[in-house]
Structure formats: C-alpha cells, structure tokens
Design a protein that fits this description.
Elements lengths: L2 H12 L7 H15 L8 H24 L6 H5 L4 H9 L12
C-alpha cells in the first residue's frame, strides 16, 4: 500500500474529506474518541478498544503527513485564499467608479 492509499484510508476512518484544516482534523479525532473510547462508552469493550486504536493510528498518519508537508507561501498560493474584499481591491483599487473611493 502506498502513502496515498494509507492517507486515504486514514481519512475514511476519521470521516474526513479530501481537504480539511488541522483544526477540523483534531476536532473530528476528539469526537470519535469520545464516541468509541472503551472507558467512556458502553458496549463490547474489545470492539471499542480496536476502534479506538484504529482512530488513533489514522490520526497519527494524517498528522505525520501534515507535519512534513511543505507549504508554499508564494504570492500566487497565498492569493488563492484572499477574501472577496481584498480581491476587489486588487482588481479595482481606488477607482472612483468601481473601487473603494472612500478614505479609510
């Protein structure tokens, strides 16, 4: 099994989609642990223990990938995530017809 398959499997275990923030990953991990942890829930202890181990391993796989991922801080990459207001200002500037002409 390749790295992509390993990460895809971990995403599936945690119920995450192809893109998620670190905060979403951590929140989902905590939710699942509360749901499956053998000390916190009733039911078959062996099944819950196995599921808890599976959740922890999936979380470690994803977080390991996140810790070693190289982020791009290039202008092009950062500008992919700017707000609509910033985009408007970049496109139209202080043009009196289209842009923000108020003194701010």
């Amino acid at each position: 099994m390749g790295k992509y398959d390993e990460i895809s499997g971990a995403l599936q275990i945690l119920g995450l989609y192809e893109s998620a923030t670190v905060m979403e990953i951590k929140n989902r991990y905590r939710e699942l642990l509360k749901e499956w942890h053998p000390d916190l829930c009733g039911g078959d202890e062996n099944i819950r223990k196995e599921k808890t181990i599976e959740i922890i391993n999936a979380y470690r796989i994803i977080m390991d990938y996140c810790e070693h991922y190289r982020f791009s801080f290039s202008r092009e990459e950062v500008e992919k995530y700017i707000s609509p207001e910033e985009l408007w200002t970049i496109q139209f500037g202080k043009d009196p017809i289209w842009g923000n002409y108020r003194d701010e």
